[in-house]
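Before the break, one more example. Copy the sequence into your notebook; we will annotate it together after we see the structure.
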Amino acid sequence: MREDPLSASDYGDRRFNALWPDTSLAEIKRENKEDEQALADLAKIGRADLNPQDKINYDLFKWQHQDSIESYHFHEYLFPLNQLGGIQTVGDMATQSLTFTTLKDYQDWLARLRTFGPYMGQTIALLRLGLKEGCTLPKVVAERIPPQIEDNIVADPAQSPFYAPFKSFPASIDAKTAATLRQEAAQAISQTIVPAYRQLDDFFVKTYLPGCRTSIAARDLPNGKAYYAYLVRHFTTTDMTPAQARALGLKKMAEIRRQMDAVIKQTGFKGSFHDFLHYLRTNPKLYYTNPDDLLEAYRAQGKAIDPLLVKEFGHLPSIPWGIEPIPADQAPDTYTAYSEGPSADGTRPAVMSVNLYKPETRPKYEIPVLTCHEGRPGHALQLSLAAEMTGLPKFRRFSYYNAYGEGWAVYCETLCGEMGVYNTPYKKFGELSYQMWRAARLVADTGIHYYGMSRQDAVQLLRENTALSDENINAEVDRYIAWPGQALSYMIGEIDIQNLRAQAQKELGPKFDIRAFHDAVLANGSLPLKVLNADIAGWLARQKRG
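Here is what the structure looks like once it is written out:
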């Protein structure tokens, strides 16, 4: 928490709310040495003598530190930002992560505003070193970043995202104190925040962008093929190779296409598969034109799903959840939706954030499946349960393994079908389109970063096989380019959970209880897939013994 105070704030740990992370090269090297020492110390502990929970703790602690050392070896720290987030969007944490209920909360935020300069300087230094070592973002995604930087260069400090907390105060802060805080915030933004972003803008536009690589493939980075192979292992938490991931994607695409063809027949549509996709993308009845209507539709869908959950889960979180818009300055370059877990101190609920930018490109038939994934029973449920597991060590309580978290959320898309959420052929096709999207990701991500697929070929792959809108497809492909390997975790994780369920149903027969199975999968927080498989094997053995 001390080394990453931004994550600490996000988790609701307020001890370091006045600090920015130290991202200097000297500190990064020191932390790597610390990781190496931690592994050496861990090796002195006899794993065989530990109880079952501590064996999980041991394995996860080892996995995390080994992974951190491997990331350091590939110089991942030279990519401190991309179009999906970084120092250019950090001001949004004032409204998305932090809570302001006491005078100290405001004073801590002021301390961050006043000490922002060194953090910006360290970020620029890492980007500059990346230029020197040939470790840069691809130009096609880096070009999305300057407008995000410019959103922070304001003439009026009150228009800065960093100023947002000072627009209202709790009753415990008197008017005179509030006025002083506002004045100090405006001064810090004018004298520190805005100049720092001007410095970043000048460096990024004049130096970094011209030096960015024109290649989009991770394989073209220094030691790039080995780096991408590591990313496949990192994001899938398996020993899978790029070739195996690609082969699995092609196999799943063929299976899902047959299901999509069957659903098109149910609609009564006359025409080819591609004619149907064109119809979905161009029929105005399938889209909202008003962003408020789109937001209300998501919220209504969430409310409709909530009562169905008691039949699928024995234990549900007590933490509430809600659906909010993605900040307008981020919306053009980010996901269709994403989920943020609740704070550990219970002051912030779980939130599904939805993209309202260009609502005429956000299909109605995607709303149910997306709510199941990002809301409940997907991320908003899993992250809330993890936050409530106060008996776990913090390094586990706040860990997130992509193959588990995203695999669970994609599994929940299918689960919602069993729950009756997709009650029209169009909604069902929306679910299958998302399944196809996740299968095609295996082909696109490995294709871009390992096999030389062009950006346009990746766009065409999604366009020809899914009902995603062009707006979504372009943002998605740029996401794969900027974040190699992450897109592999979704379907690989889902397949693993589906296989575990099939195994449990086969071995337990009439004793199989879907609620107990779901509770078991969620019982220990986020886990690498190998650890999850071992954990469910133990649960199965206990179930058989009664």
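The first strand starts at residue 321 and ends at 325. Residues 175-211 form the longest helix (37 residues). Try to locate both features in your own notes.
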